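Archive maintenance. Older records in this collection stored only the sequence; we are now back-filling the structure field for every entry so that each record is complete. The fields below show one back-filled record exactly as it appears after the update. Entries are processed alphabetically, and ABC transporter ATP-binding protein is next in the queue.

ARCHIVE ENTRY
Title: ABC transporter ATP-binding protein
Organism field: Paenibacillus roseus
Length field: 547
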Amino acid sequence: MLQTLRWIFNYIAQVKHIYISALILLVISVVTNLLITISQKYIIDDVFIAGNYHLFPYFLGFFLLMACLYIASWCFKDILFERASDKLRLIMRKEYMQFLYRMPVKDYQKERIGSFVSYLNEFMNSKNVYIWIFPELIEKLLNLILLLAIVGYVMPELLVIIIPLSIVFIVQGKYFGSRIQRLSVERNELKTEHNVNIEEGISSSREVVAFHKVHWEVKKLKQSFQRYLNKIFAMVRLERKQLYISEPLRWGSNLLILGYGGYQVIQGNVSIGTFVVFYQLSIQLLDAIQGVYNSIMQFSNAYGGMYKAKDIIQGEQIDIGNTAITNAIQNIVLKDVSFSYTNEQARVLESISMEIPVGEKVAIIGESGSGKSTIAQLLLRFHEPSKGKIEINKIPLNQISRASWTHKVHAVFQDPYLFPDTIRSNILMGRDFSEDQIVQACKITEIHQTISELPEGYDTILGERGITLSGGQRQRVSLARAIIGNPEVLILDEATSALDLETERRVQENIDSMRKGKTTIIIAHRLSTVENADICYSLHKGKVTVA
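Back-filled structure field:
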């Protein structure tokens, strides 16, 4: 918990000026609220009971001034905390996504995609709780300290009731806090699982209907929701137990303070004004104790949504490198490269050494599982070699800036991802190319005619993952996206596997004509795909057998 708090404070430090200003206003609101309460004693005793009515306008003016200060400070502190919260939301969301993109692919592939979305949502929700709990906790603690000092100075005997009650609350908070924290973590894990099941159920709707498994999918969703609901009920039961202890203590203490204060008035030891004010202060003191306790409970509750995102952000990250490639790529060499996805698994690549000549068309072929696609992923730095190294212009690839490298290398995969956006946006992906360049790229990949026949043309909105297009159409749109910038290196990993032979031949001829003098790496099963390659490497069980 302490590590998490330090982690949160690092974020708060990024908006410290706003936060400190809000805390100053918070202190003003606490002090003015106490002065408003205390001023009532003098209004009752010195004005109404003593009959000094000429003093009433002065006390009323003081009361009004304090009320205005309290309202202004209370309102503006909330505005500042909200502004700090909004800024932190942007900072934390950006950082989460940056770390997610730098996460090793081996770790990324262990999680279901929907889990990361759920972690982000819980991260944001928990952030809001933490951002608002800190000032609330400071407010309650400040109230607690000031009220203890005032009550202890004027009526120290009341501390005999209040101090034991505080100890009970501390013990209770420690007991229930750890249990609520554990249940909170478990609840959020089950919530993530249920949300992922919903997302996957929607994504797989075609397969579910095709296999007549709707009842099976509904049953799975019901079971995951029931597990999540059971954990919520367990938390509610635990929170109810702590209320069964804390509320009777609180109201019992109110009764004792009321009885003791009334007795002191009857005995003539305190004035009516003193009794009225210090009864209010005692109630506020009890509320402050309760507030501190509630804040501890909220900390414990919010921890469940924070720890997973914290693990991602503080987890292993890919070294993005710091050496920029300013000159053209002159050579690409794999030296004794071996790779396995985990230490327990057999190596997918075993001591691979190859040179990819610049400006030529290089083919890598082999049966499924031979390691062809793994070479592409290593070149794209999705993974790092377990042994050996890859050099670009005699510089180790892991030392080269990722931004610099990916600017020069584009890739197309067998199952490309298309965003649920327009065809134009999918091709551009935020880059600045003219309409003529877009059309030319699509003509090269033999998809322009198909797009032109659509009612909205290049402004046609694609469905999720481009589901409104066929597999071959998706591949050709993705090819257009890759070649529009005419990168120095183009990696095609089964990028035309969904095309018929004639269309594939035309697309290849167009790309070959466009990319003369550029490096193209083709990974394929079909020999027809690589028959006009300048160099061909054949892989078998992770080793080069023919070059």
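Update note: The chain has two domains: 18-182+243-313, 332-546. The first helix runs from residue 2 to 12.
Entry marked complete.
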